[in-house]
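Subject: Sanity check before I submit

Could someone independently write out the structure tokens for this chain? I want to compare against mine line by line before I put it in a report. The sequence has 376 residues.
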Amino acid sequence: MFSSRHKDGHKEYPIAGGLRCLPLSVKRCGRKGWGGRTVVVVKGVLRAAVSFALGRLYPPCVVQAASVSMPAALPIKTAFIMRRLPSLTALRTFESAARHAHFGRAAAELCVTDSAVSHQIRQLEEQLGATLFERQGRQVQPTAQARRLLRSLQQAFELIATACDELRDPGSQAQLHIAVTVELAQKWLVGRLADFAERYPEIVLHLHEQPLEAPGPAAEIDLAITYGTGPEDASTYFVRPLPTLQFFPVCSPGLFNQSPLKHPRDLARHCLLHDDQDGKSWTAWLTTHASDIRPSRHVYLGHAGLTMEAAVRGQGVAIGDNLTSAEDLACGRLVRPFAAQITSLGQYALVCERLRLEKPAVADFIQWFTDQLNDM
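---
Independent answer below. Compare away.
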């Protein structure tokens, strides 16, 4: 299991295929406390990655993290039971095969033969006692169990890679990857990022598109602003909701003055701008406040950012909300013809895996984001 011994008495434990071994202190405990199990003491900045990778994937040992300065608001779990880890080569092969859903592409990525990939997957299935792929000719699909394992492995490998990057170049700027739905990025977040850059000039921010239907961040994303009901696993994810959304009609001042909009039934004479392809947003509002009208003109756009822009240009009446329409309303580019509104069934939320809370840049963004919400 151990590969070698350092001159300071530390042993090396191989953590993941293709990654260097990590120096760990090893000692035995007596019968009291941890009942004679091996205790592994993790040194340095690799603590977070090793704690996650070993704790998720090992166990008749105990991992204890060395003391590291962290924000008081983000407590760290410092010890947990480890289970025995399957073959690390097999785990790395599985991650590639499951990500590609194809053994051949995994073989090309890992520079091995197709039969080698099949052998490693078969070995891992035997070690775990579980079927990981459903085979359909040359195509393979990960099972539900395999998808859960894939997610955990990607998190572990990402944490280890980040820690190694920090060791290679400790003076480099922190990299933070944020995924946001298009409309919220365009109409709410981007205008506030100058303040973030001023407060945290040492953090390089990467903005990605968050799919509207995705409940949580992708494996390579540090934090995501999602829309919907959010992730179900509260033990895995940190979630900070944004204010509850209220939907209401908005239009340009010119359109409002040109063609009277004094009552919801007046919408029958106007073009309705939809932020979805099925018209659900407008249907929900009309069902509540003007169920007897049948507007004759409709334009279906991809998301709320586009409908707000079309409404500002006087092309029709859109469904706005208290987040994506707030700036345009405050600046007078849009007006609310009626006070009538409905509450959205979905909600925006800032989401990240709890393991990433140990990353200082993540903690900084969450604090800044909370300040932005408090100032609304």
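---
OP: Matches mine. For the report I'm noting this point. The chain is about 35% helix and 20% strand.
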